[in-house]
Amino acid sequence: MSDLRSEVGDLLSQATLRYSMVWEDDELLRQGLRIAPTDDVLCICSAGDNVLSLGLAGANTVTAVDMNPAQTALLELKLAAVRTGSYERLVGVLGLADGAPREHYRALRDDLPADAAAFWDEHLDLLEGGVVFAGRLETYILGFARAHLAELWPDDLFDRLVRATTVEAQATLFLGEGLTADFEERFSWYFGREQMAANGRDPAQFRHVQDGDVGGYFLRRFTWAMTHTRLRDNFYVRAFLSGSYGPLESGPAYLRPSNFEALRLAAARVRVVTGQMEQVLSQYGPFDKGAFSDMFEYMSPELAADVLAGLAAAFRPGGRLAWWCLLVPRPVKGALTPLDGLADSLWEGDRSWFYRSFHLGEVSG
């Protein structure tokens, strides 16, 4: 795995908040990995949502790793807020409740590691506007609705979609009033490769993408989500269309009020590491379960296979690894036994509207 940094480039280690929420459906991880109380879990940090969700699933330990110090600083902020014992502090510092996020930050700053505190001291502006939607990707994704939806949809269409009592009724409404020719054209342009590379994802993340019609792909996936999942229960799509999760009891697992006491216990079992994967594997392995976002599509097929083999060697027999593919196929190969039937069945219920596939591999005994 030593070639990971050189191939992916410096984008992974830049102190820029690229992701402020996680767009990979945590239910697929929880059901696919089948977390046991004895499991030690390794997870790409990103914005930390799924790290906390796996902790809530009952893992013995969850180690979050990211080369980008901005991402680990965000998770440390969430953990510090949880450790205060106040749900109001958690949602307050994230900008999801009335009040001043900076005041909440000052109240918990001394509980942060020094590097995380230094990052937030220099980026208080991210807190002020509501950090949970302040990542580079989130600013871009949510910008579609903010800049274009009012022109493309009737004023009350979103509310009527949320109130739809069945998926069938919602689908009929969306196909009849939402999926107009103008909407298709604007959506495909906004989420096309050129616009995404300039404003949403780093151009280096498109290095191995061969599909030319990126916007058309995203339109098909969004249409699937709007016709197969209920908007009122799907906080991923709801955030995209409205800039809000809606009622937090239906939001990400770590933000549900009913989960907060369990989250306090889980937070004590979370370890956060800013650095490279090799460091974590050698220092804290072996692991039982692993969640790797869509990291393999940033690599060549050869490097992806090598990294998977290296990961498998650092996991206990019977362990499971999970990852998504967005625009580049990177299926299970070599060192792992594919669990394609389970992975495919879970992906069919994926509430996120991005990913083309979900993958599970099991470490041989």
Sequence-ordered SSE layout with sheet pairings:
Layout: H1 4-8, H2 26-33, E1 40-44, H3 49-56, E2 61-66, H4 69-83, H5 87-93, H6 101-108, H7 114-122, H8 124-128, H9 136-152, H10 157-163, H11 167-178, H12 181-190, H13 193-199, H14 214-228, H15 235-242, H16 260-267, E3 270-274, H17 277-284, E4 287-291, H18 301-313, E5 315-325, E6 336-338, H19 340-347, E7 357-363
Parallel strand pairs: 1-2, 1-4, 2-3, 4-5
Antiparallel strand pairs: 5-7, 6-7
Helix pairs in contact: 4-5, 4-7, 5-6, 9-12, 9-15, 10-11, 11-14, 12-14
Summarize the structure.
The chain has 365 residues and is α/β, with parallel strands linked by helices.
Task: Please characterize this protein's 3D structure.
The chain has a 7-stranded mixed β-sheet, with helices on both faces. It starts with a helix and ends with a strand. It has 19 helices and 7 strands. It is α/β, with parallel strands linked by helices. The protein has helices spanning 4-8, 26-33, 49-56, 69-83, 87-93, 101-108, 114-122, 124-128, 136-152, 157-163, 167-178, 181-190, 193-199, 214-228, 235-242, 260-267, 277-284, 301-313, 340-347, and strands at 40-44, 61-66, 270-274, 287-291, 315-325, 336-338, 357-363. The protein has 2 domains: 4-132 and 253-363, 3-Layer(aba) Sandwich (Rossmann fold), CATH 3.40.50; 136-250, no CATH class.
